[in-house]
Structures are given as structure tokens and as C-alpha cells.
């Protein structure tokens, strides 16, 4: 089970899980693992829409599957049959990849009988005409609780998620002719609704499926492809539904019916019914996801991104001009042989040339954190770039998270190499301990927080809880793939020539003068975090909406552009901050620059609190704990990422300026 959980979808189908490779010798496991990863990408994770359509003939069965129940109020997904829905004779769960398991998806078959291009007016899902389905008091209480918590039901047909059509009118004038209808879609359908302290269940589903007829040659049977899946949920009480012995039913006409109330204090009798309507569509199969991916206003997104780009590049240009002009003047003055004393009084960064490369405290921890930051940077860059090319479409469920997890494991080589080389540059000697610290410090914190949160989710019996076999599989991936690769990279990085610092370090440390108030670390964090956060806070809103409000995030082209701007702005702010610090004759820049460069993570935390208070309707303890727990992981990862970018930019800058001046 554990092996199946970590394998992508196609490996589960052909019964070739990762841990079946038992005959491979230990010295050959790395190339085989890389080969398996590349094969996995080609078959499952990197799925380009429009490559593998399914053709249906007339009256072919179109299977309706259930994914999960979700609510933005509780952030706790549940599997479909956690509620007393009608069940088929045999319940079959789909083999899922790692990303689907971590998302809480539990894809399972349902008893809905849908045939291609075959209409159904009304059919009883379970129960007979003289014997409707009875919900016990416990089941009624559970259904009422889920409805009051605003849960949505998510179904799929031919891998297309079901959507509910919402018709909004842009003009609010009295003249109906001037009103323009704006059609939007929300994912899934509401389980029910409340009205005047009464709870009602949507027990009738009107499925509307759209198909595209494929053009074929003469004497060939027409084939159809599903291009849209909509649902209109209705609540119809038992007395208004007329069912016969053949499981057919008759819906009440007009608005004469009353909704199906669920009384949590007693047993409730009801019918679960559905109808199917097919419509032909001009939408081609390759474009069928456009309906789901255009639910937000793209024009506002474009305007916000362009605005951020202009502002960031304008400010970055000003900062670059100031720094370059000031540096040229400083270097020119320092390199004059006459009037040296006046020059040294003018500016102070040359005065600390004998201490600027003095190793900081805790060099092992610093190099380990920076190694994890390099690992994160490589993983995020590759994932965003590949997703921008369309290879991680939302239609391939869990592919993004699966790819990110595997890439983070394999990027341990680069993280270990950079950490090992920096550790040797900082005069470190215990490379084995440093490699272990790099491989376990950040992943250990992430795993510890996730395990604690997972215990709370387990207590709620949510499908969002990672199963124990999957957790064991993740640990095996960590210690079986990531840890050896980090050690491998660390070994070669430590053996490589350390970074060549242009000046020697004095034996006696220089005394640091008293610093002004604006050189305080916290003030530096506030100042340095504004520009990078301003470059990406618009994108942050869409990312938060995708995570916490169950929206699709697909604008990876925007995200790649924002990521590049974030790298540029972090680098420039870091250079400015380290320049000011060295001018103040404070040479302890290693740790300070790493902390200050990640200052935008503080603003991400503030924004997350703002989003929680103003955008989400979470009131219970465990959902709040989950939100702030996962937010803490996001902030920690973002701090590592931006801190690493800023640190290496500042390190290159410091080496460059001290190599440009004459040191006696």
C-alpha cells in the first residue's frame, strides 16, 4: 500500500510500484531511480491537455465518480461516502498518486448510470417506490452538520469536475433589457442550504453534459467527447416526488414543490434522484478546461502584474543607479594613493576589509539553511517553468504536488553541494555532521509540523489526513533518496576548492562602533521586505484562493514572471542593505543579511493573518490551527527561499567590491 501511494497514477495501473525494484544492486539504484522519475513524468505527471482524449460511441457508459467533500469554513475534506449517499453494489477506489493523497482526494465510483447522448428525465438512485431511503438520527445529524458548514460535493465525469452555473447581472438598472448576463461557474455543488434555521438537502441532481461530435469519414460511426460537466442541484421533498416500480420518477412542475428538510433530531425519509441532459457543443476537447480556468477576472490580473512589474523595475533601476554611482566614487577614491586618510574618513566599508570575511557563529547551521534554500529554489524554478509550458495541467490531478515532492528529493544533490562548499569556505571541518544537518534540519521541521497537524486531522476522521502507509513511504523517500543525495552533493562540495575571498582576515577582530537605530535587525527586515512583497502580493491572493478556497490555479506564466521579479528585487535589496551595513563598519553581515533578505516573509505572515480575518469564515479551533500551521510552513519556506537568494547576491557583491580596491 505504501509503495502504491507514492507512485504516479500510471504505475498503479500497470502494477509496477517504486519499491518493486528489489533486484537492483545498491551501486545502481541512483541511475535507475532517475530513469524511473523521467518515465513517470512522461506518463503521468507531465500531462498536456488534448493528448489523450477518450472517444465515446452512442450509449456508451460515462462513469460518474466522486472525489471528496470540501468546505472553506472547516478546511477539512471528507470522502464521499462519509455521508449516507446511495452506494453501488461494489465500491471501488481509484489508485491515486502522492499528490492526490496529500490533497485529500479519495476518488470512488458512484451508482449514477449515465450513457453517452442518452437522456434521463428522472430516476431514483436508490430505494423503491414504496420504500424510500431512511436516514437515522445519527446520519441526519451528520448531514445537517455538513450542510451548516457549507460543504460542497465534487464529482467528475471523464476527468472533468462538475461545476454549478452562476448567472450574474452586471447592470442593476430597472430595465431588464439592459441587463447583461455574466455567467460564472463554481466548483462542485452545495450539499444543501439553510433557511430560517431550517436545513435542506439537495437530493435531486440535474446533470447537464456537453459533448463534441468528432468529424469522421463516411460509413464510420460517430464518436463523442465530453467537453463540459454541469449540475443543477435541487431540493425536493419526498411527498412531491412520484416514483414507480422501474425506479423512474416524476418531478413536480414549476415552483409547487417544497424542499427536502433534514431534521437532525429524528429520522428522515427521502429519495435521492437525478436526471441527465446532453447538449452538443462547439468546444473542442483540447479547450474543454477553459470553462473552469476562467472563473476569475484575468484583466484585473494582467493590470496588477503589469503595475507590479513597472513599479519594481522603476525602484530597482533607481537603487541600482545610486549604488553603482556611489561604489564607483568609493572605489576611485580608495584607489588614489594620495590623501588616503581623508578618503578613509569619508566612507567606512574599506575599513572592515580585514574582518568582512571572518566566519560567523554557527557556520554549520547557516550553510545547512542555505543548502535547503538552494534545494527549494531549484525545485520551485523547475516546477513553475514546467507548469508554465502546460505540462502540469489541473486535469492531471495531484501532478503538481507529486512533481514538487520528487523534485525536492532529487534537488538534494545541489543543496548538499552548495552547503558543503560554503561550509568549507567558512572554515568548517565536520562535513558528515554538516551533511546530516542539511538533510534533516528543514525537512525535519516540515515533517514535525505536518505530523502534529495530521494527528488533529486524524481525530476528525477527515480524508485530508495522510494515511500511515503514505507517511512511511514519505519517510522512506526522505531517508532513502534525499538523504543519500544530500550526502553525495555535500561530499563533492566539501572537496571542491572553497570560494576565493579577495582579502585576508585579520587575527584580531575589529571593534564595531555603536550602530544607529535604523541599523536594527527588525527595522532592516521591515525595510527590506517591502519591495519583494510588493512584487508578488497580487499573485499571493490568487495562490491563497487556490489553497484555501478550493480554486484552480493555472496562471503559471504570471507566476514565472513574478518569480523572476522576486529574485531581482531580493538580490538588489540585499545588496543595498549589506552596503549600508559595511559603511557603518559592521562586518557581521552573514547571518544578518540572511535574515533581512527574507524580510518579505514577515509581510507574507501579516497578509496571511489579514486574509484569515477578512476573507475566510473559519471559527473553529482545528481549522484555525490547520490554517496557521500550514501558513507557518509557507512563511518558513518563503524566508529560506528569499534569504538564500539575497545571501548569495550579497556574497557576490561583497567579493566583487573588495576585489576592486587596492588593499595594502
UniProtKB/TrEMBL annotation:
GO terms for biological process: cell adhesion; phagocytosis; positive regulation of protein exit from endoplasmic reticulum; positive regulation of protein localization to cell surface; regulation of intracellular pH; response to hypoxia; vacuolar proton-transporting V-type ATPase complex assembly. It holds the Pfam family EMP70. The chain crosses the membrane at residues 302-324, 368-392, 398-423, 435-459, 471-494, 522-548, 554-582, 594-613, 625-654. Its main location: Golgi. It is a multi-pass membrane protein. Keywords: Golgi apparatus, Membrane, Signal, Transmembrane, Transmembrane helix. It is found in: Golgi apparatus; Membrane. One of its GO terms (cellular component) is early endosome. Belongs to the nonaspanin (TM9SF) (TC 9.A.2) family. This is Transmembrane 9 superfamily member. It comes from Equus caballus (Horse).
Amino acid at each position: 500500500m505504501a509503495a502504491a501511494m507514492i507512485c504516479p497514477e500510471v504505475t498503479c495501473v500497470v502494477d509496477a510500484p517504486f519499491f518493486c525494484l528489489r533486484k537492483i544492486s545498491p551501486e545502481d539504484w541512483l541511475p535507475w531511480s532517475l530513469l524511473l522519475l523521467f518515465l513517470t513524468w512522461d506518463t503521468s505527471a507531465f500531462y498536456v491537455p488534448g493528448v489523450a482524449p477518450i472517444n465515446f460511441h452512442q450509449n456508451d457508459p460515462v462513469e460518474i465518480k466522486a472525489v471528496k467533500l470540501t468546505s472553506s469554513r472547516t478546511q477539512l475534506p471528507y470522502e464521499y461516502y462519509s455521508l449516507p449517499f446511495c452506494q453501488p453494489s461494489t465500491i471501488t477506489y481509484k489508485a491515486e498518486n502522492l499528490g492526490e493523497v496529500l490533497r485529500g482526494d479519495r476518488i470512488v465510483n458512484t451508482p449514477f448510470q449515465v450513457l453517452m447522448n442518452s437522456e434521463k428525465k428522472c430516476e431514483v438512485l436508490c430505494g423503491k417506490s414504496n420504500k424510500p431511503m431512511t436516514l437515522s438520527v445519527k446520519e441526519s445529524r451528520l448531514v445537517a452538520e455538513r450542510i451548516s458548514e457549507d460543504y460542497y460535493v465534487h464529482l467528475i465525469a471523464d476527468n472533468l469536475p462538475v461545476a454549478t452555473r452562476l448567472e450574474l447581472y452586471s447592470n442593476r438598472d430597472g430595465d431588464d433589457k439592459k441587463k447583461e448576463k455574466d455567467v460564472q461557474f463554481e466548483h462542485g455543488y452545495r450539499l444543501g442550504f439553510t433557511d430560517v434555521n431550517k436545513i435542506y438537502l439537495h437530493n435531486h441532481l440535474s446533470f447537464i453534459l456537453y459533448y463534441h461530435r468528432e468529424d469522421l469519414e463516411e460509413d464510420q460511426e460517430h464518436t463523442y467527447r465530453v467537453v463540459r460537466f454541469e449540475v443543477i442541484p435541487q431540493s425536493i421533498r419526498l411527498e412531491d416526488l412520484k416514483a414507480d416500480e422501474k425506479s423512474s420518477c416524476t418531478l413536480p412542475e414549476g415552483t409547487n414543490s417544497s424542499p427536502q428538510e433534514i431534521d437532525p433530531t429524528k429520522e428522515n425519509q427521502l429519495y435521492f434522484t437525478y436526471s441527465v441532459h446532453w447538449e452538443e457543443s462547439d468546444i473542442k476537447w483540447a479547450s474543454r478546461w477553459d470553462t473552469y480556468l476562467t472563473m476569475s477576472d484575468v484583466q484585473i490580473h494582467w493590470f496588477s502584474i503589469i503595475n507590479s512589474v513597472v513599479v519594481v523595475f522603476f525602484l530597482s533601476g533607481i537603487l541600482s543607479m545610486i549604488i553603482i554611482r556611489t561604489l564607483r566614487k568609493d572605489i576611485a577614491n580608495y584607489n588614489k594613493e594620495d590623501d588616503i586618510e581623508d578618503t578613509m574618513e569619508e566612507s567606512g566599508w574599506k575599513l572592515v576589509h580585514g574582518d568582512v570575511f571572518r566566519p560567523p557563529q554557527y557556520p554549520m547551521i547557516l550553510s545547512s539553511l542555505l543548502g535547503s534554500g538552494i534545494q527549494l529554489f531549484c525545485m520551485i524554478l523547475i516546477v513553475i517553468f514546467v507548469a508554465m509550458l502546460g505540462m502540469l495541467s489541473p486535469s492531471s490531478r495531484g501532478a503538481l504536488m507529486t512533481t514538487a515532492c520528487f523534485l525536492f528529493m532529487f534537488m538534494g544533490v545541489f543543496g548538499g553541494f552548495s552547503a558543503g562548499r560554503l561550509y568549507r569556505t567558512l572554515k568548517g571541518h565536520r562535513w558528515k555532521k554538516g551533511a546530516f544537518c542539511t538533510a534533516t534540519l528543514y525537512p525535519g521541521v516540515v515533517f514535525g509540523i505536518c505530523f502534529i497537524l495530521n494527528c488533529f486531522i486524524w481525530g476528525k476522521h477527515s480524508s485530508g489526513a495522510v494515511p500511515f502507509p503514505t507517511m512511511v513511504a514519505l519517510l522512506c523517500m526522505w531517508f532513502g533518496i534525499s538523504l543519500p543525495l544530500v550526502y553525495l552533493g555535500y561530499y563533492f562540495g566539501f572537496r571542491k576548492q572553497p570560494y576565493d575571498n579577495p582579502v585576508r582576515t585579520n587575527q584580531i577582530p575589529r571593534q564595531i562602533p555603536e550602530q544607529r537605530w535604523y541599523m536594527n535587525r527588525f527595522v532592516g527586515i521591515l525595510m527590506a521586505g517591502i519591495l519583494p512583497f510588493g512584487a508578488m502580493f497580487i499573485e499571493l491572493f490568487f495562490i491563497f484562493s487556490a489553497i484555501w478556497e478550493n480554486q484552480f490555479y493555472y496562471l503559471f506564466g504570471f507566476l514565472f514572471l513574478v518569480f523572476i521579479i522576486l529574485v531581482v528585487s531580493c538580490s538588489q535589496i540585499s545588496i543595498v542593505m549589506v552596503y549600508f551595513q559595511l559603511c557603518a563598519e559592521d562586518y557581521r553581515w552573514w547571518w544578518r543579511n540572511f535574515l533581512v533578505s527574507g524580510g518579505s516573509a514577515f509581510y507574507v505572515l501579516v497578509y496571511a493573518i489579514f486574509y484569515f480575518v477578512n476573507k475566510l469564515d473559519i471559527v473553529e479551533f482545528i481549522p484555525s490551527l490547520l490554517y496557521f500551521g500550514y501558513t507557518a510552513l509557507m512563511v518558513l519556506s518563503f524566508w529560506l527561499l528569499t534569504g538564500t537568494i539575497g545571501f548569495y547576491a550579497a556574497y557576490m557583491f561583497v567579493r566583487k567590491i573588495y576585489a576592486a580596491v587596492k588593499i595594502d
